Amino acid sequence: MLLGIDLGGTKIEGVVLADDGGELARRRVPTEREHGYDHIVDRIAALAGELRALAPTCDRVGIGTPGSLSARDGTLKNSNTTCLNGRPLRDDLARALGLEVVMENDANCFALAEVRAGAARGARLAFGVILGTGVGAGIVIDGRVWTGPQHVAGEWGHHRISDDGPPCYCGQRGCVETFLSGPALERAWGDAGGAPAEATVIAARARDGDARAAGVVAGWIDRFGRALANVVNILDPDVVVLGGGLSRVEALYDRGIDAVRGYVFNDELRTRIVPNALGDSAGVIGAAWLAQR
Ligand SMILES: [Zn+2]
């Protein structure tokens, strides 16, 4: 059996999977992050203890969390649950749970879940992308997350695609995230004179024939094509699977694919670019698959 926990800013979700991936149990508790780091560790430990009672043979737990993990010591950075940043969450949880802890960021868990149980099932090399408030990605090769010696594999959101692009919180300018995230699309819409609107609303207006929205979304799609073609040229993945709130924008799967094709260094594009199949469950399912030996 596999035990996985997805740590989010508002909820902590845990799951027990059978060895074949069938779901045996699922529990959810609020994160209560306002009570701080130690409280969150206790919440996770209590949830894991409850689930482990159902899966007593598990000696390992997979944990998915936002932010990036240091390859040096497993501390977190860039987590939007800011009390976790700089803290040795992996080691503290291992101590509290009495279990081995395998921890990955949410984009890596997403990619792994879609390969094991979702839209990229069976792919040898998959690139999973989260397009939401930020832009994250993960690489899965032969059913395993590829992290690399610095633990930065898949950090596509901070791949710089323009020297004079918008400033990014990471200290660079023109990162993929500064063009493709929801806030980036909303900013481009505002710059074009549009009244404040959510990214998915802007995309819907473009689809319904609003010329100004169509212009803004066309620019967004073009950046998507450039940025993803860079990935295809390097990894040549079998599948790119899209998640996050903006993965629902239908134009990504026709004009978006055309845009990628136009920038790839080849006369055809065989890589499938598909929406996710697991929705919000991908995080916890991917976390559980992390625990597989
Ligand atoms: Zn950046």
Notes on the protein architecture:
By secondary structure, the chain is an alpha/beta fold. The longest helix has 25 residues, at 211-235. The protein has 9 helices and 12 strands. A 5-stranded mixed beta sheet has the order 3-2-1-4-7, with helices on both faces. The chain has a 5-stranded mixed beta sheet with strand order 10-9-8-11-12. Strands 5-6 form a two-stranded antiparallel sheet. The protein is globular, with a radius of gyration of 19 Å. The mean pLDDT is 95. The chain has helices at residues 37-52, 89-97, 106-117, 176-180, 182-191, 199-207, 211-235, 255-263, 282-290, and strands spanning 2-7, 11-17, 23-30, 60-65, 68-69, 76-77, 100-105, 125-131, 135-141, 144-146, 239-243, 272-275. The chain binds zinc ion (ZN). Zinc ion is lined by residues 158, 168, 170, 172, 175, 177. Zinc ion (ZN) binds next to loops.
The CA-CA distance between the termini, in Å, is 11 Å
Round the Cα radius of gyration to an integer and report it.
19 Å
Strand count, sense and barrel status of the largest sheet are:
5 strands, mixed
Strand content: 15-25%
Bound molecule kinds, no repeats:
zinc ion
Number of helices: 9
Q: Main traits of this protein?
A:
293 residues; alpha/beta; 22% strand; binds zinc ion
Secondary-structure blueprint of this entry?
Layout lengths: L1 E6 L3 E7 L5 E8 L6 H16 L7 E6 L2 E2 L6 E2 L11 H9 L2 E6 H12 L7 E7 L3 E7 L2 E3 L29 H5 L1 H10 L7 H9 L3 H25 L3 E5 L11 H9 L8 E4 L6 H9 L3
Parallel strand pairs: 1-4, 4-7, 8-11, 11-12
Antiparallel strand pairs: 1-2, 2-3, 5-6, 8-9, 9-10
Helix pairs in contact: 1-2, 3-9, 6-7, 7-8
Bound molecules: zinc ion.
